[in-house]
Please model this.
Amino acid sequence: MVNFMSKIKNYFSANKRTRRIKDVPVPVQLGIYIERGEELVEELNRALSPHFQERMKYRFLQEHPNWQQHEFEWAFFELKRYFIMNKILKSVPMFSKEVDEVWHEMLMFTRDYEQFSKQFYHDMLHHTPNLDSKPIPGERGFFDWVYLSLFESTPNSRVLWGGFLKYPISQSILEDFKTFSEEELLTHYFRHNGEWMDLKRSLIKK
Model:
């Protein structure tokens, strides 16, 4: 009885996701449109070996039979965008259950994930589980602003992240950007790696 109900749940979940995520190609170069953005994407691609990606995709689709291939491709596409955001920001909450599922599957390949993380971040990017579907409004507002400052928004992006610009940026964050010096903001909000400083400073100015 339990197995039967589980199959029914997976069936309706798959149909719901299929209707929502369109089977269309993902944008090239992650749809990034900032200056030198393609260089940042290429840096990510060099850290994510094709062999690692193919193994992870195969395992994910085996472990999640209710997912279609194009659904995985789009969730992984958005995970790559999330990784780019983590290259720039000090901390990035996870606001997508589907994207988080793909990230969690990557962690099953412990050695490959660690190698990717060390190469791209020079540090370990630890998994931040999506424990609550309700976003933290102030943090979600800031996430949306940075995301839309970096990437083209697509219908599938909006499906996977639950839409954008539904929440205002918190007053405390806005106040920090009004009163903190550039160096204080870099220390408080951005990753301390000395990389992509022009991009970080341009976000502060924007």
Remarks:
- Residues 49 and 116 are 8 Å apart (CA to CA).
